[in-house]
Amino acid sequence: MNINGDAKAACIYDAIVIGSGISGGWAAKELCEKGLKTLVLERGRDVRHIVDYPTATQNPWEFPHRNRMPEAFDQKNPIATKCYALDESTQQFFVKDAEHPYVQEKPFDWIRGYQVGGKSLIWARQTQRWSKFDFEANARDGAAVDWPIRYEDIAPWYSHVEKFVGISGNKDGLETLPDGEFLKPWELNCVEKHIQKRVAEQYKDRHIIIGRCAHLTEPKQIHYDQGRAQCQARHLCYRGCPYGGYFSSNSSTIPWAAKTGKLTLRPDSVVHSIIYDETKGKATGIRVIDTHTKQMTEYYARIIFVNAACLNTNLVLLNSTSKRFPNGLGNDNDLLGRYVAFHNYRGNIVADYEGFEDGYYYGRRPTTAFMPNFRNVRKQEMDFQRGYMVAFSAARSNWHLGASQEGFGAGFKDKLSDPGAWNVFMMMQAETVPRYENHVRLSADQKDAWGIPQLVTSIDYTDNDLKVMKDFLEQGAEMLDKAGCKNIKPYDDHRNPGLDIHEVGGVRMGRDPKTSLLNAHNQLHTVKNVFVTDGAAMTSTGSQNPSITFMALTARAANFAINEMKKGNL
Ligand SMILES: Cc1cc2nc3c(=O)[nH]c(=O)nc-3n(C[C@H](O)[C@H](O)[C@H](O)COP(=O)(O)OP(=O)(O)OC[C@H]3O[C@@H](n4cnc5c(N)ncnc54)[C@H](O)[C@@H]3O)c2cc1C
Ligand code: SF4
């Protein structure tokens, strides 16, 4: 009896966090800092900052295949290899297709990073705040349900997160893309500045800015305290940065939480489900499968944060069945897994710019130019719902292709170091409207290596998404034309949903338990000690890169949870 009692006591924590990625790292930091004994469960292996970045300083010729993946790998991994960031230097941080299968009822490219740090190691670090218009959009045009919070509720938490993460950006004073707590911005290059000026002259509502991103352009004491240092503009970030120049859980929140002495990090631990106790009317813990031994263990805590990344969070909750919740935890309304949304990236434009031959730029800037959404912002104006952000960059081409140029000797070598003409690349990041039909559910017959049902993805574009793309392709081409670009080529790359890697929803926040799963503080309406604070909680997608909003929601919910615990409500 005593032995069992001791064993159980060793498994009891104040808080459990499922997932150690961008949002889970933030939950761990906030909870540990406030003194909670916190267990972070991570299905992937441990990745320690610096020591586990084996490729961080390697040159292309030091890789067996010059930093490209061999064809055999691509054939075995048709989904993962679609991600632009996967190459020989980064492949260790991406899930391989065969190891973690799922069922695509409709094509969906699910890009995942299963390791300590999750996708925070391999994200592109763009961090644009949402505006008041984004939180009001559902109420304005009637899509999905109204957000239970507004910009003012989250603004202080954006600031809280930005100061710690370190966000480079310019104070642009735009209502559609609020300013934050910024470090020095990166600079637009001469062609981008030229396009910025021309667009500003011709369109009152279109503003080009330098992208806000999670890079330490001028570290403050709080960043040095994390052991991080100035970004060197190498843009080898997806390999893990030995300087901690960009924000990842591994360089920032996880070691910070560990320093408090309150953190237990358990890698190689797949969360199977959350345990619901009917007599207590709350969740009491979780079931975990060890990836090596395949043994199941239970851990217990007063509060549980689910941060497994949008679709896996849906999976964990759907798999958490009990007599009280036969269809998944908190799923009284059968909406769990529904209203999944994503970003539509299908529209792209390439163009040339003739001129500025004497202009160049310093280093490899790890961000790009952006234009906040200008469609349907204040009222419905177009024949489609919502809008899009535009991202673009201008760069000099050719010289790096020099090896394929003809020639030999000194003249050839000189040509190799000659920058070529300016090229412009533009793409859209469009909001998709959350729909009941776009959903994930558990497979009735297919299981993964741990005996957990596989996820079925049933997510697609709509006519609205095609109309948005058409508008972007016309407007983007027009703007580039007015800026003097040549050879403007708009195209649809026909990519599947998912490759944007910005999936959200399925466990949406709302005011009414009949139509939403979470309340304004990210608590399950019906199981108050379970918090969902990753993308799954999102009631719509906005057109901004989502992760800074996940972080702010997480910090806000964690501090709410701590206060509720103090009051004895949890
Ligand atoms: C190439 C690329 C570029 C991107 N660029 C941007 C960008 O510029 N800006 C932006 O905002 N976002 C970007 N993203 C998206 C961003 O990475 C995600 O939005 C963010 O990581 C989500 O945070 P998260 O905590 O929800 O999930 P993750 O960071 O993915 O972490 C989830 C963690 O949970 C773990 N987990 C899953 N299931 C279980 C389970 N059952 N038990 C235990 N652990 C589990 C996973 O292994 C993982 O470590 C990009 C992503 C990629 C891949
Ligand atoms: S660009 Fe900055 S953050 Fe990225 S790898 Fe280089 S130093 Fe690190």
UniProtKB/TrEMBL annotation:
GO molecular function: flavin adenine dinucleotide binding; oxidoreductase activity, acting on CH-OH group of donors
Cofactor: FAD
Ranges of residues in domain Glucose-methanol-choline oxidoreductase C-terminal: 434-553
Gene3D superfamilies registered for this protein in UniProt: FAD/NAD(P)-binding domain (3.50.50.60)
Pfam families listed in its UniProt record: GMC_oxred_C, GMC_oxred_N
UniProt xrefs under InterPro entries: FAD/NAD-bd_sf, GMC_OxRdtase_N, GMC_OxRtase_C, P2Ox-like
Glucose-methanol-choline oxidoreductase N-terminal domain segment(s): 104-322
Keyword terms, alphabetized: FAD, Flavoprotein, Oxidoreductase
Presence of the UniProt keyword Zinc in the record: no
Domain of life the protein comes from: Bacteria
Record-stated family: Belongs to the GMC oxidoreductase family.
Protein name: Choline dehydrogenase
Organism: Spirosoma endophyticum
